[in-house]
Amino acid sequence: MSGMGAVVVVAALAVTAVAAWWLRTRDGAVRSTGTEEDGVAASAFDRLGVRPGEADLTVVQFSTAFCGPCRATKARLRQLQATRPGLAVVQVDAESHLDEVRALDVRRTPTLFYLGRDGELIGRSSGAPRPDELTALVDAHTGAGS
Amino acid sequence: MTAASRSVDVRGPRFSAWVTAVVLAVALVLGSGVLVAAQGAVFALGAFAGLRYAPYGAFFRLVVAPRLGPVREREPEAPPRFAQLVGLLFAVVGAGGYLLGAPVLGAVATGFALVAALLNAATGFCLGCELYLIARRALPARA
User: Fold this and answer.
1) Is residue A7 part of a domain?
2) Overall average pLDDT of the B112-141 stretch
3) Which of A37, A40, A97, B31 has the fewest Cβ atoms within 10 Å of its own Cβ atom?
C-alpha cells in the first residue's frame, strides 16, 4: 500500500470534479470579445476567406482532426443553415491555418466566432455550444423566428 | 480503409476510460510501477495498432456491447486514438518514475493520467484531444 498514492487518487478525484464543473460552465459559453485587436482579427478572417457582408450572421468554426465535439457542432450548424438563409458558416481546419489560430488566440476546438454583416465580432465561444443556445444566438442575429 | 475513415461505437472509448481510471487508481494505491507499465502497454496498443486491438475496447465490443443493444452513434477513431498516445506518454513517465526509484514523479504522472481518464469517463471530455492544438500552436509549421 502507498499512502502517497492514495493521496494522489483523492487529489485526482478533486481536480476532476473541479475541471468537470469548470467545463460545464465555460463550454460553448459566448463571450463578448476584447482581447483581440480589431484590425488583426479582421485581416485574419479576410485571409481565411470569410466574407461577413454576404450574410446576416457568419459563424466561423475552427476544428482539428482530433476533436470529437467538433463534428456534432458542425452538423448542428449545417442543420441551422438549412432553415435560416441569413446564416453563413465557414469551416476552418485549425492545423493548416496556424497563423490565424495564433492571431485570433484559438486555444481549443471547436472555437466559434460570430460575425455580423458589418464585419463586427459579436462574440466567440470555445467548446461545443449547447444546441439551444446556439439556435437562440443564430435566431437573434438572422431575424429568423420573429 | 485508412485510419482516418475508421469509426468506433462512441460507448467504447467511454467504457475504456472507466476501466483505465480504475486500473490507474489501483496502481496508485498499491504504488505499483508494473501496473502503470501494463496500462502503458494497453495505451500503446490503442495508439499504434488502433482501437480495434485495444484490450478494453475489444472487451467492450465482444462482451459488453451485445448486452447493451445496437450501436446508436459512431465517431471517428482519430480523436480517442490520439488520446491513447497522450496517455501513453504519462504512463511511460509514471512507470519510469516508480521503477527507477522516483516514486513521487511516478505518482504525480500517474495522477495526471488518472485525471484525464476520469474526466473522459465522466463527461466525455478528451484532454489529449484538447492538447493537440495547443501543442501544434507552440511548434513551428511542418516543413
Assistant:
1) no
2) 88
3) A37
Ranges A69-73, B21-25, B103-107, B131-135: which has the least confidence:
B131-135
Is residue A22 assigned to a domain? Answer: no
Q: How many CB atoms lie within 10 A of CB B39?
A: 26
Domain that holds residue A130: 30-142
Quote the longest CA-to-CA distance of chain A. Answer: 65
C-alpha cell of A57? 450572421
For residue A120, what is its C-alpha cell?
A: 463586427
Q: Is A15 helix (H, G, I), strand (E, B) or coil?
A: helix
The residue in chain B having the minimum alpha-carbon distance to the alpha carbon of residue A105 is B137
Q: How far is residue A74 from each of residues A1, A77, B98, measured CA to CA in Å?
A: 48, 5, 43
- Number of domains, chain A: 1
Q: Are B130 and A108 in contact (CB < 8 Å)?
A: yes
Phi-psi region of A127 (alpha: psi -120 to 50; beta: other; left: phi over 0): left
Distance from CA of A66 to the nearest CA of B (A): 4
User: How many Å apart are CA B91 and CA B101, to the nearest integer?
Assistant: 15
Q: What is the CATH number of the domain that holds A87?
A: 3.40.30.10
Q: Which of A1, A7, A8, A10 to mutate to test the interface with B (most CBs of B within 10 A)?
A: A8
Grid coordinates given for A23: 467545463
The interface predicted TM-score of the complex, written ipTM, equals: 0.84
Q: Judge whether A115 lies within some domain.
A: yes
Q: Which amino acid is at A67?
A: C
CA distance B99 to chain A (A): 14
> With contacts defined as CB-CB under 8 Å, which chain B residues touch A108?
130, 133
Alpha carbon A70 to its chain centroid, in Å, reads 9
- How many A/B residue pairs have CB atoms within 8 Å? 103
